[in-house]
Structure formats: structure tokens, C-alpha cells
Amino acid sequence: MMNKKLIFLIFVFTGFFGCYRPAIPWKITASSIVDNGDGIKVALNWKGGPNGTPVNTTVVYELSQVGGDMEWNPVAKTEKWKNVQSLDFSKDGASLILAADVRARDIWLWEIDKLPVEFTSNKEIEGDVIFVGDLIVFRKKEGKAHNIFSKSINGIQGKRLTNDTSVRWNLKVFQSGEEVILIHNVLNGMNLGISSVSLKGTNSERILDNPGPEISFDIAQGKVFFSNENKWFLCETGLKPWKEGCQEKDISSEFSWTGDVFVLNQDVYGGVVSESSSPNQSSLLYSSLGRMLSISYENGDIKSLNSEGDVLGLVVNNPATGDFFRIEKFSDSSFESLPPIYPPELED
């Protein structure tokens, strides 16, 4: 009799825990923001699983005002891809370009009111991708090196912009007079730095080439801002400001640089830091009108950020629920916090 009870209990126990799958915390693997004057849009790829089954959901949100309140409305959504590494809005906010996986990683073009279409179909691994006018620029792995390529939006004309260069991570567009310049991180042996190349594929120049920690940078109108070895540097003079010399910006001994930096169209720059008194809690430290100010989020740690004009997008992590997204919009010498965007299963 005891053997039957024991067998029954074992069956119930294993059946229950065999079916139970713990929730997978949500992560934001890629984000993009656009503010074209008609309103702000945000595109996020969510990776997680409330029922223990991993899913990837790419959602486009639009900010609208209902009565006296602002809220984010999902206007497009797809679960087509296994993963999204990088995405970018077109200038008008009507389309997205994505580096995403189905069978392999390829570049996809998604006009938001239509189905996504495959823009490239290559055997090589492809990475970061951005819009540059009517061109699409992307990073592709070739053997041990990563290089940058451009291709017209109709998919016909293509061009190699770098050759045998280990191009990694950030990829941004800088307008220098009539010339369009791509600025990106580059890894050469142990040297991690920042490099530039004309959209014409000529005149490649190294901006910074140092061994050491990962280098973050951002650009705005006529400005390049980067971090290196716990210091901030602002370049803002001339058509190619990095050639005219960059000014070191003191972030105070109370803080330590821990993450991404940003510079906005207005005279505002900053980055993710931690205070010496709370090394495990990150804050947003920024300079405005000669003053250093900070923003922190209760129960949230800033993982990454990106900027667009005078808008700042932050991926914030809550240890209990996973990632969520915040927008800070700068105007009148201060940031305005817009409503946060939470993972799909936490939406009201």
C-alpha cells in the first residue's frame, strides 16, 4: 500500500514540476526612436517568456495624448524573427530596417503598414544596420573581420565602404558639410577605438585608437562625444571636430563612468554613471548650462541608451520583472520624463 502511495506522490510531483516552466525575464535586444515633428515613435524588440517559452516580439509604439494624459499605443507588431540585433527608423518614421534572424541573420525592411520583406540574403553574419537617406548601411562579418556596406533601398546598388577592418558595435551618421561620414567602433588587435569613413568609401580616418575599456560615443549637430578610461571628451569645432581637438569634460570624482554616453542637439551631454557611495546603482549624469545634474530610477538600473535629436531613450532593468523603456525629452533646460513602456504581458 505504501509503495502505491509513494508512486502516486512521485507521479504528481514530477508531473507538476515537469510542466512548470519559470518565466523568462524580458530583455530589450534592440531599440530605435524617431521624432519627426509629428510625434515620437519607438520600436522595441522584446525577448522573454512569461510562460517559460522564449519568444521575440517586435513592437512599434506611437505616443498619443488622451485627455490630459500621454500614453504609448502599439501601432504594429510582429513575432516573425527569432531575434533582432539592431533596428533603425527611417527619417519619416514610416519604415524600419532590422538585422534579424529567421533561418540565418539577414537584413529586413519593414514598412510598418505592410509585411516585412527580406532585404539581403547572404551566408555571412550581418549585424548593425541604419538608414542613411535612401541608402541602407550595415555591418557584415567576413571571416574574422567585420566590414561596412551600403545598398540602395531598392536593393539594386551596393558598395563596400571598409576593407578587412574589424568594425564592431556602434554605427552612426555624421553630416560634415556636404559630406556624409559614418562613425563606428573598431577593434584592431587589442586596440579598441573609434573610426570614420566617408559614405563614398574613401578617406577612412581613425578618431581614437587606445587599448583599454569599451569606448562609447554619440553624435549630434556638429558634435562628437565619447568616453575613454572614465573620462568624457567633447569635440565640437570644425567640419570634422575630432581633427580640431576634443575637450576633456570632468565628471567629478563622486562618479564613475559605467555605460553609454550621449550628446543632444542642444548644448547637453552626459552618460550612465554610478556613484562611489552606491556602485551597484546607475544614474544618468548630464551637463546643462554649465551645471551637472543627475536622474536615477527607483528599482531600475540603466542598461543602455540611444539619442535622437533632443530625445533620449533608455533601457532600464528591474531585477524583479526585467527590462522596460523610458523616454526623456529635453526642452527648456530640463528633461521631461514620458510614460515608461513595459513588457507586453505587463501592459494594461
Q: How would you describe the shape?
A: globular
Mean pLDDT: 85
Alpha-carbon distance between the termini? 51 Å
Low-pLDDT stretches are 8-17
Percent in strands: over 45%
CA radius of gyration: 22 Å
> What would you call the structural class?
mainly beta
Number of strands: 28
Supply the number of helical segments: 2
The order of strands across the largest sheet is: 1-2-3-4
Q: Biggest sheet, open or closed, and with what strands and sense?
A: 4 strands, antiparallel
Q: N-to-C SSE series?
A: HEEEEEEEEEEEEEEEEEEEHEEEEEEEEE
Binned, the helix content reads under 10%
Keywords:
348 residues, mainly beta, four-stranded antiparallel sheet, 2 helices, globular
List the helices and strands and how they pair.
Layout: H1 2-19, E1 24-35, E2 40-49, E3 55-66, E4 69-78, E5 83-89, E6 95-101, E7 105-111, E8 117-118, E9 126-132, E10 135-142, E11 145-152, E12 158-160, E13 167-176, E14 179-188, E15 191-198, E16 205-211, E17 217-220, E18 223-228, E19 231-235, H2 241-244, E20 247-249, E21 255-263, E22 268-275, E23 278-288, E24 291-295, E25 301-308, E26 311-318, E27 322-331, E28 334-337
Antiparallel strand pairs: 1-2, 2-3, 3-4, 5-6, 6-7, 7-8, 9-10, 10-11, 11-12, 13-14, 14-15, 15-16, 17-18, 18-19, 19-20, 21-22, 22-23, 23-24, 25-26, 26-27, 27-28
